[in-house]
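[job 4471] stage=fold_predict status=RUNNING
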Amino acid sequence: QVQLVESGGGLVQAGGSLRLSCAASGSIGIFNLKPMGWYRQAPGKQRELVAAITFGSINYVDSVKGRFTISRDNAKNTLYLQMNSLKPEDTAVYYCRLVVREDVYWGQGTQVTVSS
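[job 4471] inference complete, writing structure tokens
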């Protein structure tokens, strides 16, 4: 059984920063070898990939490049998303995703609200 628990969301003014965390537990194997990502879903919109990290690469959606940074602490089995220069259009529920072999796991989501 794999569990992902996100935290760090909240309400922030435009231009502010937040850091999201996603703690993984259970039968995840070697954490730093697992593909992981942050997704977000705004009201009325489809869930979209924000940032992804694999053993050898990091990718971001164009709208967050230069503002968001994905990273992970392998000793803590925790994935992070540092979000700077936040904009109202970043408002969404943010989810972390972990792939273990052929299985995909999602966290429960954390709300990020950016006021103008």
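[job 4471] summary: The longest strand covers residues 18-26.
[job 4471] exit 0
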